[in-house]
Amino acid sequence: MKQDLATYIDTELKKLFPVFQWRVIKNTNNRIIELFITFNTKVDDSLQVQDVIGQTNQPGSIQFEDVICFYDPAYAHVKPQNYLASIPINSHTGIEKGHVYACLKQLNIIAEEGIVELKKFSDDNVTGEFSLRWNEHNLEGTIQTLKSINRYDEEKVKMMLDEEESFIEQIKKDESNDGVERI
After folding, report:
1. This prediction's pTM
2. In terms of domain of life, where is this protein from (predicted)?
């Protein structure tokens, strides 16, 4: 059985040993895969930081969370400003594994830098906001490097869709049971 995009992302992250924890969520109805990442840094117990939704940190630690998404623009109505990165794909033909791998490597680098910056942020009484920044130029550089050293995989990985049973199939199943629902 072929691997789908969500499983491929999870498998590749396990190989990368990233500096963050992650969770992959697939929404086949909207043809979107979201990759949530989280990391934290130790801080003084007295430091209180509030996130964008008004929650404050636990004493002694600041936890940060962000998300990237892979989506099919023909089906999903994604607001790029809601994501660290939003990567458009064709859910029918898929996306090259090399592109996905480059995105994951880029994400790990950004998270590594983010951990250092989050610690600086926690020590700085002046800076009012912390966020990660995706750099499309660096992503393209990673892709070119992978291609130049022959480590870019052009094989496509698709977003497998959870197919619902058609109405006709449901009727056929009912007819095979003489129209009686078996429990």
Report:
1. 0.84
2. Bacteria
